[in-house]
């Protein structure tokens, strides 16, 4: 796995980075993602006290994201995205590790990750970080 030319910083997003997040998602979001992206929706996320939008920053460039949610019962991770030119360098794994640290700090003992089933590379990453596919549970969704 090629190394990174500079250290990658993993941290919560800053309010002035929302356009950069939206631009990254426009380039690197999962084909399975169905929720419309907007600054307003990101604002709601930032206002949530126990959830966090983590970003990976490399030399002042936002190159990755992960939404980490906590509802008091279990954690959720979704919108793991890494810029295509920066993939396969450990950035996604670092985002997931930081997400775990956030959730453990809140008392979480279980976490689920939303992953498009047809995305083999994404599934491999989640399996490599210790996740198992739960084939016994379906997910029902509805847009509001």
What does the average pLDDT come to?
A: 88
Which architecture per CATH? 3-Layer(aba) Sandwich
Helix count equals 4
Q: Which strands sit side by side, in order, in the main sheet?
A: 1-2-3-4-5
CATH topology (fold) name: Aminopeptidase
What structural keywords apply?
144 residues, Aminopeptidase, alpha+beta, globular
Task: Give an overview of the whole structure.
The chain has 144 residues and is an alpha+beta fold. The protein has one domain (8-128): 3-Layer(aba) Sandwich (Aminopeptidase), CATH 3.40.630.30. The protein contains four helices and five strands, in the order βααβββαβα. A five-stranded mixed beta sheet has the order 1-2-3-4-5. β2 and β3 form a beta hairpin. The protein starts with 7 loop residues before the first strand and ends in a 16-residue tail after the last helix.
Question: How do the helices and strands line up, and which of them pair or pack?
Answer:
Blueprint lengths: L7 E5 L5 H11 L10 H9 L4 E7 L2 E10 L4 E8 L8 H16 L4 E3 L6 H9 L16
Parallel strand pairs: 4-5
Antiparallel strand pairs: 1-2, 2-3, 3-4
């Amino acid at each position: 796995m090629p190394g990174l030319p500079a250290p990658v910083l993993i941290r919560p997003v800053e309010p002035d980075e929302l356009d950069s997040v939206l631009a990254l998602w426009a380039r690197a979001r999962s084909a399975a993602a169905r929720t419309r992206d907007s600054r307003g929706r990101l604002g709601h996320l930032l206002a949530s006290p126990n959830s966090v939008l983590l970003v990976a920053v490399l030399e002042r460039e936002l190159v990755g994201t992960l939404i980490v949610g906590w509802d008091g019962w279990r954690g959720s991770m979704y919108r793991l995205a890494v810029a295509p030119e920066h993939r396969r360098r450990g950035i996604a794994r670092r985002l997931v590790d930081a997400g775990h640290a956030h959730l453990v700090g809140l008392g979480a003992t279980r976490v689920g990750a939303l992953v498009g089933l047809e995305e083999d590379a994404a599934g491999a990453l989640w399996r490599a970080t210790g996740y198992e596919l739960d084939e016994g549970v379906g997910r029902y969704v509805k847009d509001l």
